Amino acid sequence: MEKIAVYPGSFDPITNGHVDLIRRGLRMFDQLIVLIAHNPNKVSRFTVEERMHMIKEVIKDQERVRVDVSSGLLVDYVRDNGASVILRGLRALSDFEYEFQMALINRRLNRDIETVFLMTGYKWFYTSSKIINEAASLGGNVKGLVPDLVYQNLLKKYGNVKE
Ligand code: PNS
After folding, report:
1. CATH class of the region 4-123
2. Which residues contact 9 (CB under 8 A, 6 or more apart)?
3. Verdict on whether the full-model pTM lies above 0.85
4. What residue ranges do the domains of the chain occupy?
5. Judging by DSSP bridges, how do beta strands 31-37 and 4-9 pair with one another?
6. Which residue's alpha carbon is nearest to atom 11 within ligand 1?
7. Of 53, 123, 129, 134, whose CB neighbour count within 10 A is largest?
8. Active site positions, annotated
9. Number of the ligand 1 atom closest to the C-alpha atom of 70
10. Coil/strand/helix, residue 9
11. Separation between Cα atoms, residue 143 and residue 89, nearest integer Å
12. What pLDDT score does 93 carry?
């Protein structure tokens, strides 16, 4: 039977850290669904359509990956799409408590679904979409932290990123 994992997140926008996790997740699972899920605690900078477009472009050569959007409960999406695993990346210590809480509530909501964590690649350990947006919006050069297409979109959005 095919092992399907859902990799949920805000992806606002997708970073090289996310791309690394997708690549490594594909070594463990037959299919990966990159899911733009609703995080009620965050205000998005890119629209869902913009985020979807960027992810689709970035993963277009990966046959075993698809992109989807959900505004509901994550565990319900996972169950309804024939998956049994939630994939998340773990960065520096600050992620731990939040990720632990999410994994536990998701397990309480559906005991058939497991959360699997991969350590974020060391190059991306301290980067996040949030910090990349902040740097880019103030004119910082974030080239190399995001795929080229995302970099172009940050340039368009904030206009003043230094080369
Ligand atoms: O990239 P993020 O913002 O850290 O991802 C968090 C996300 C979107 C995965 C999380 O907020 C989520 O799972 N949202 C869907 C709603 C849900 O099921 N929440 C958890 C149980 S209350």
Report:
1. alpha beta
2. 18, 34, 35, 36, 37, 88
3. yes
4. 4-123
5. parallel
6. 39
7. 129
8. 18, 42, 91, 129
9. 15
10. strand
11. 21
12. 81
